[in-house]
Amino acid sequence: MTPAVTDETFEREVLQSGIPVLVDFWAQWCPPCHMIAPMLDQLAGELEGTVAIRKINNDENPVTGARYRVMSLPTLMLFVDGEPVQALVGARPKARLLKELEDALSR
Q1: How far apart are CA 37 and CA 89, in angstroms?
Q2: Which of 6, 73, 79, 101 is 20 to 30 A (C-alpha) from 63?
């Protein structure tokens, strides 16, 4: 299961991370969020040590979502050195997500 962060732990777990972090902004009522959850759990294991994957419930932690202007769910936001470098809105297949991550990290 992908580890969760909150408004209170976001800075420590994401912004201060020594490796890139892909954050899944999700909500309980969001069907596409539930569709991609198993794939993100799988990727968390596959990418361990290179990219951390965390999830944050946007309804329960509104401060972080507002800070990064999350308007639609799911939003996957990639943070590198504490800065958001890419936001991906909506569900997508694993291969496409991996390609988008690879492209963002090679810039």
Answers
A1: 14
A2: 101
User: Would residue 95 count as lying in a domain?
Assistant: yes
In DSSP notation, 5-67 reads: --TTTHIIIIIT-SS-EEEEEE-TT-HHHHHHHHHHHHHHHHTTTT-EEEEEETTT-HHHHHH
Residue 46 bears catalytic tag: no
The whole-model pTM stands at: 0.97
Mean pLDDT, residues 68-90 taken together: 97
Active-site residue, 33 included: yes
Q: Tell me the pLDDT tens digit for each residue of 29-56.
A: 999 999 999 999 999 999 999 999 999 9
Q: Which of 33, 36, 56, 97 is catalytic?
A: 33
Catalytic residue among 14, 30, 44, 77: 30
- What domain range includes position 60? 9-106
